[in-house]
Amino acid sequence: MNPGTRTTIDDIAREAGVSKGTVSRVLNGHPTVADRTRARVQAVMARLDYAPDPAARHLSWRTGQTLGLSLDRDDPLLHPYHVLLRRALESQTAPQGVQLVDLRADLTRMARLPSAVLVMHAVEGDPRPAYLRSRGVPCVLIGHQPGEFWVAPEDVGGARLATEHLIRAGHRQLAFLGHGHSQVAQDRERGCRDSAHAAGLDVQAITSDFTVLGGYRAVRRAWENGTRFTGLFAQSDESAAGAVAALEDLGVDVPGQVSVVGFDGLPELPIRQTLTTVAQDIPRIAATALALVQDAIGGQPARGEFIPVQLLPGATVAPPPGGTP
Amino acid sequence: MNPGTRTTIDDIAREAGVSKGTVSRVLNGHPTVADRTRARVQAVMARLDYAPDPAARHLSWRTGQTLGLSLDRDDPLLHPYHVLLRRALESQTAPQGVQLVDLRADLTRMARLPSAVLVMHAVEGDPRPAYLRSRGVPCVLIGHQPGEFWVAPEDVGGARLATEHLIRAGHRQLAFLGHGHSQVAQDRERGCRDSAHAAGLDVQAITSDFTVLGGYRAVRRAWENGTRFTGLFAQSDESAAGAVAALEDLGVDVPGQVSVVGFDGLPELPIRQTLTTVAQDIPRIAATALALVQDAIGGQPARGEFIPVQLLPGATVAPPPGGTP
DNA sequence: ACTGCTGTTGTAACCGGTTACAAGAAAGTC
DNA sequence: GACTTTCTTGTAACCGGTTACAACAGCAGT
């Protein structure tokens, strides 16, 4: 095949011995295609690695496809995790000509309906999925919820990995830096407590949001008030970074006196170089979300998927001062 | 005109009494069009508010237009200002079918040349504009630099606004929270010093980066070391937020004892509700950058534009404790 | 064998632009 | 006045898909 010439619908048609129209019908899941024909065409498409040209489809459809992102508030727009997830989504939808649009939490005032919606930060009983269904817009949640299409990182499992990593290093005085409001925070705290209890240990809770400053102030205040621990698991990399900075300012050596583990594994954070953390596979979360959108459009039954996380050893974990008893 | 039917190139052609081809030639600045005809066609396009369909052009061109964003490093990706500027650019280029692509600082290894490039954080003698010119790629800088196309906020003027606001409130002990590395930081410090000197005052410098934690630590350390001031101008909203938090933790009342002014005016920051700040018009910066890209493509002579900023009074400025002497 | 119905496929027009080529008009040359 | 040459414009094919409609095959009923 000539380099530089992309495979078109005509190539598929010729190769499969059918007409353009039939290939197009297969592409769009039109029901009036014989099963045998559909299979043959799909085989050829797979073999020639065919992807329809988004510009041509837009031209025919007189409109582009859009993927809405529904947030619960405005400020998550600036949170590193969200920025990176959005970027990953964007880089994966752009080649298919799908455009991302930001939606306010109040979906009832959408100007134009998007082709599909990704619902972020959904909580139990969130009205958004039901509303979208009533408008015929397929939707996928980021976060787990039975009965819906969803994708979520393994928050509980990742928290266990982090906690067990600290325990294996010999730590007995554990603390969790976080806050119980969101589903994510709750899962991460639960994983942490589960692992600790399994080892017969208790976990002190230090309340904090997900931000750097939040982590800094919470840890500094707790330490100044006499709270002591040797192993700290923070619910986010940012709060972990804040914790490390606070300990540094308090003259507490990391990891000499206190070990710190974060969560998310965002490569763009300056601290990523040194922080021990549980890394999420953000590109894969994005890819899975988009695959689920396709399923939802195709009328498949709802399902969810947990995306594995990975412990990323760094320089902020070491055995506790006294060593293992 | 029927609602729902966009004006097409055929409408223009009919209305102007020429053929599709001629309209297309006018659209693309093809030189072989009589001046009289071009003027007539352009008048009709303006009157009917015509915008060519990006999908149709992509289809003909066999490729889409891309706008590259060149950063000097990776981590600015997560800085709030950059995130919001990128979002503004995106929302303005998307309707024209132009796609944003992130470029590494090392432009020599670009996979495919973008249609144009926005160079961020350019410093004097930056090799990127020259390199791009040699490859025939038009570029526009964010930040001012003679001889190039550029757009920049009025950093110096904004810093003067902020400082004069503090001075007008009665402050005599001023401090600047920032760092002299980047062009932006230098301009903002210069504007601050200019205004202070004009009022016969001096300015203490507290070194900090642009982040929340950086501002927090810098201010806290300075204050604990005995540095005193009643009016603080921070080079960014984030460092201002850090400063406010630090002062709060130190038991210093804002604005009772110390007044704080930030810079950027990012609506999505939680502190924006209360912080006195100098607001940038980010959508306008984006729009101007895109207009300059058009100029650059059209071969116009290089020019730059400062975008005005605006003092946004908040709740973090009040007269100093002793009142005006 | 004829009719009517259903299920499947081909045909061709169309989406809104671009552009190679041909054709006309105007101007210069002998 | 006939012949080039140079500008300017119209024509029609094309980019890669979608889809209304026609056509055809197979089958049941009579």
From TrEMBL, chains A, B:
| Membrane-crossing residue ranges in chain numbering | none
Which intervals hold domain HTH lacI-type? Answer: 7-61
- For the keyword DNA-binding, the answer is yes
SUPFAM superfamilies associated with the record: lambda repressor-like DNA-binding domains, Periplasmic binding protein-like I
Q: Sorted alphabetically, which SMART domains does this protein's record hold?
A: HTH_LACI (SM00354)
Q: Supply the alphabetized keyword list.
A: DNA-binding, Transcription, Transcription regulation
Q: Name one GO molecular function term.
A: DNA-binding transcription factor activity
Q: Which InterPro entries match?
A: HTH_LacI, LacI/GalR-like_sensor, Lambda_DNA-bd_dom_sf, Peripla_BP_I
Q: Does the keyword Transcription apply?
A: yes
Q: Please identify the protein, giving its name as recorded.
A: LacI family transcriptional regulator
This chain's source organism reads: Deinococcus indicus
The organism's lineage is: Bacteria, Thermotogati, Deinococcota, Deinococci, Deinococcales
